[in-house]
Amino acid sequence: MQFPVLPLRPVALATLLLAPVLAQATNGYFSHGYGAKSLGIAGVGIALPQDGLAAATNPAGTADVGDRLDVGLSVFAPRRISDISGNAFAPDAGTSGNGKKTFLIPDFGATRQLSPTTSVGLAVYGNGGMNTDYGANPYARFGATGVAGINLEQLFISPSVAWKANDTHTFGAAVNLAYQRFSAKGIGLFGGFSSAPANVSDLGSDSSTGAGVRLGWSGKLTPQLTLGATWASKISGRFDKYKGLFADGGGFDVPENYGVGLAFAATPDLTLAADVQSIRYSKVGSVGNSAASLFAGRPLGSANGPGFGWRDVTVLKVGVQQRWRRDLTVRAGVSVATQPVPASETFFNILAPGVVQRHLTLGATWTTPGGGELTGYFAHAFGKTVQGAGSIPPGVPPAGLGGGNANVNLRENLLGVSWGWKF
User: Fold this and answer.
1) Span 183-198, average pLDDT
2) Distance between CA atoms of 94 and 408, rounded to whole angstroms?
3) FRET label pair with 196: which of 19, 70, 328, 377, CA 20 to 30 Å apart?
4) 220 in Cβ contact with 64 (< 8 Å)
5) What are the structural domains, with CATH classification, of the chain?
């Protein structure tokens, strides 16, 4: 059957129009998975491709899903809370960062088999993001005014190609075209700690584009066991409007990430699968550099300047998928991640509390009599609090801010649906 022609430019433009509604924060600020089927099985997908968004996880999977088109939409509801305790400048107080409570996350994927050995695809998806919106400014005790918060959005457009070397091994590659958008408000007080004081806060949205690659392999070692591996390069990014906030004059790269996975068909109807993923946040200066250097005299925005102090994240994802009936498949999964935010770095991370570590997911796919696929999923990220430990320097500015600690909390729910067509 003739596969529909989907020009890249209209798809990209249509998705860019949706970019302002993209915001999410699960494993750090990366999504826990891509495509409704993966999202319903804890994000597993390196060795278990299931839909047109397979290349977002492992481009080798483009060869294994056939000719298809998938369109999805998720509703993301995070809850962000912070409090400051033991500070000399004001009494203990908590604030809510939930000025905006729900976000929409669209995605799109298409694949086509060109020959018995070669397939191509296109995946368009929100790679990650972060949003906080504090009506009561948590930094008001230090002189900040107005509402405070940040908004980070990352959109990926990933054309892919996969090649079956033989009946066992498949190799894939994708070009990751990344669009990022960022804004900050209510943190102008940090201009006094910056190499570019006028480029810290309340400058509206700035955007950045960049490109990288994702490579992947899958190997069917036995009729029941499939292994997979994938790696994505760092993607350079820069927010010039905020060159006084982010290290290296506004640098904000998408971090390198990689993973391995397996899928085991225990029976014709039951599949067990797992992925291990690593996200190298610490290698991006604006994200990984410690804020401690700020109070040692290194200004915001400077070369190798202060950041949010995030550590690398390792994620274990485990899931099970059961074909319940001929037309119904159900799935579930759990994931556990290491903590990106150290207790000593919570002061800046009031703005970016990406601290959740555990997810529980459920999902199902109903195949219609006409062959279409309706997939739904629910994901819950259990609430997590990181209690600060020496996170606010004692003394008075510029060397201190009255001591005490910032404590940050995040929990999340996601609910999504997608429709898939096979051709």
Assistant:
1) 96
2) 10
3) 19
4) no
5) 8-422 (2.40.160.60)
Q: Angle at CA 218, nearest 5°, toward 216 and 219?
A: 150
What's the chain's average pLDDT?
A: 93
* DSSP states along 232-274: E--B--B-GGGTTTSHHHHB-PBPPEEEEEEEEESSSSEEEEE
Give CA–CA dist 310/402, Å, rounded.
Answer: 23
CA dist., res. 299 & res. 90, Å (int):
25
Q: How distant, in Å, are the alpha carbons of 182, 283, 385, 389 from that of 346?
A: 20, 19, 10, 8
237 in Cβ contact with 193 (< 8 Å):
no
Name the DSSP class of 134: B
Closest residue by Cα to residue 23 from 121, 106, 137: 106
| Closest C-alpha to 405, from 81, 86, 137 | 86
**What are the CA-CA distances from residue 422 to residues 4, 49, 66, 73, 417 (Å)?**
11, 15, 8, 19, 17
Q: Helix, strand or coil for residue 157?
A: strand
Cβ neighbour number for residue 325 with a 10 Å cutoff:
10
CA distance 212 to 234: 7
Residue with tokens 């590659």: 173
387 alpha-carbon distance from chain centroid = 23
Sorting pLDDT into bands at 50, 70 and 90, what band is 324? very high
For 152, counting Cβ atoms within 10 Å of its Cβ (0-12 exposed, 13-18 middle, 19+ buried), the class is buried
Alpha carbons 15 and 181: distance in angstroms, whole number: 13
Cα 290 off chain centre by:
21
30-68: pLDDT as tens digits: 999 999 999 999 999 999 999 999 999 999 999 999 999
Instruction: List phi, psi (to 5°) of 139.
Output: -100, 15
Q: What is the pLDDT of residues 376-396, one digit of tens each?
A: 999 999 999 999 999 999 988
| 202-240 tens-digit pLDDT | 999 999 999 999 999 999 999 999 999 999 999 999 999
